[in-house]
């Protein structure tokens, strides 16, 4: 099943903060970390992961920092999660080995979980950051 860590929660806070910044302005990792009481080194690491995936852009120097690299309408929640968590495996097998799984035949007990996980991934893959921000603004 998809498990999201605190790192993803912090990453979403950072992204939301960057989305609310005026266009063209940069925000430092230290500023974002202070705003949400997150260790600055952790925030810097999360922002670097997001930058490597092209979700945020970084600029070095005195006026440097981070800003959104693409419009919120072009970034899916799934992209953010994978940038922060790494590749999310499609499922977790209850068996200890491939041989044990083969001996079991079909894993009927796992199929409902796989179906739920697939639906969750589909929703996250088609929901954009813009959709999320819009829902938060509407109080949903």
How much strand? 5-15%
Distance between the termini: 25 Å
Task: Give the helices and strands as they follow along the chain.
Answer: HHHEEHHHH
Radius of gyration: 18 Å
| CATH architecture type | Orthogonal Bundle
* Count of strand segments: 2
How much helix is in the residues?
A: 55-70%
Mean pLDDT across every amino acid position: 84
Which regions have little confidence, pLDDT < 50, spanning 5+ residues?
A: none
Order of strands, widest sheet: 1-2
CATH topology: Arc Repressor Mutant, subunit A
- What's the structural domain tally? 1
Give a short overview:
With 140 residues, this protein is mainly alpha-helical.
Strand and helix layout:
Elements: H1 6-20, H2 29-36, H3 40-52, E1 56-59, E2 65-68, H4 77-85, H5 98-104, H6 111-126, H7 129-137
Describe it.
The chain has 140 residues and is mostly helical. It has one domain (6-137): Arc Repressor Mutant, subunit A. The protein has 7 helices and 2 strands. The chain has helices at residues 6-20, 29-36, 40-52, 77-85, 98-104, 111-126, 129-137, and strands at 56-59, 65-68. It has a two-stranded antiparallel ribbon. Helix 1 (6-20) packs across helix 3, helix 1 (6-20) crosses helix 4 and helix 2 (29-36) packs across helix 3. The radius of gyration is 18 Å and the shape is globular. The model has no long low-confidence stretch (mean pLDDT 84).
């Amino acid at each position: 099943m998809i498990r999201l860590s605190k790192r993803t929660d912090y990453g979403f806070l950072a992204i939301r903060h960057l989305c609310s910044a005026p266009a063209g302005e940069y925000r430092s990792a230290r500023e974002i970390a202070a705003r949400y009481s997150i260790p600055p080194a952790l925030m810097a690491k999360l922002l670097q992961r997001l930058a490597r995936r092209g979700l945020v852009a970084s600029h070095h120097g005195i006026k440097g920092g981070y800003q959104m690299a693409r419009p919120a309408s072009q970034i899916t929640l799934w992209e953010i999660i994978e940038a922060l968590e790494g590749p999310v495996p499609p499922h977790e097998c209850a068996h200890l080995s491939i041989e044990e799984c083969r001996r079991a035949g079909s894993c009927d007990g796992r199929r409902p979980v796989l179906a739920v996980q697939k639906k969750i991934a589909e929703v996250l893959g088609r929901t954009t950051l813009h959709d999320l921000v819009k829902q938060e603004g509407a109080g949903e």
